[in-house]
Amino acid sequence: MEIPWQRVLPVLVSIAIIILVAILREYSKTLAAITATMPINVPLALWIIYAAEGQPAMMSFTEALLINIWPTIIFLIIAWLAARAGWGLLPILVAGYLGWGISLGLILFVRQVFYAP
Question: Which residue range(s) make up the domain with 23?
Answer without folding.
Answer: 1-65
